[in-house]
């Protein structure tokens, strides 16, 4: 219990430090946000009016505390450029990104765990060598290239799936799934290749353990011994890598959203940067940072489920 409270305290302190860093970085960027919002031909009076409207003329500590207090209430403020609330924009776009990222990781794990296990059990054999080679090739393929190749083959070539766009689930599951398939596999195939290599290494380590040899000596097959006793032990390093890769998927989703014209958080971030909408950029960056920190916290908590030594403090 004490370890859990300590980890939660570290999480809260890290989030607070992130708010300071993100806010400070936005302040040191060149240019005047009020000038951008007022336009190229704005007078000094127009700029001063916008600064007063958005509170940009107040001391920086006051602006920071107001921003943090707003986030705690779920209010990210109003865009300097569009004058629209930022919170609904983030709420709508983050749903698209989360669906894309979570589904991609699920598909990647569904591919990587069996393929990595087979590659480990059949090491030194043709199929094992083939799987290892394919995973090495997959690691070298960037997400955007995988996305382009999938569009060329399955959309432009075969016409099976749409090449771009998004349809919400409430508008029809058929259209939703058809628009989701290519973006998901553009992310999942690359992640599956990376995870397959880690799964293979983790399973090979477990296969050398005494408890696996004992299970084999009692008459169990290699697959039966691995499924019964080995996968849980092999999952611990894989969970670490999967957590890191899930965070990198958020970055990879930015590129894939651009390729498939998806209204995700990455697309909104790029649009805000292009428009120099600094408050929106600040809010989106903070949301992404908190998501990564939450993922790290969940991975730490999952350790205690997979490894009893973590729970006991051993």
Automatic annotation (TrEMBL):
* Annotated ranges, domain ABC transmembrane type-1: 94-299
User: What does the UniProt keyword field contain?
Assistant: Cell membrane, Membrane, Transmembrane, Transmembrane helix, Transport
Q: Where are the transmembrane segments?
A: 98-122, 134-156, 176-199, 234-261, 281-303
Q: What Pfam families would the database entry show?
A: BPD_transp_1, BPD_transp_1_N
Give the matching InterPro entries.
BPD_transp_1_N, MetI-like, MetI-like_sf
Q: Which Gene3D superfamilies match?
A: MetI-like
Main location, first listed in the record? membrane
Q: Which CDD domains match?
A: TM_PBP2 (cd06261)
Q: What is this protein called?
A: ABC transporter permease
**In which organism is this protein found?**
Brevibacterium salitolerans
Question: Lineage of this protein's species?
Answer: Bacteria, Bacillati, Actinomycetota, Actinomycetes, Micrococcales
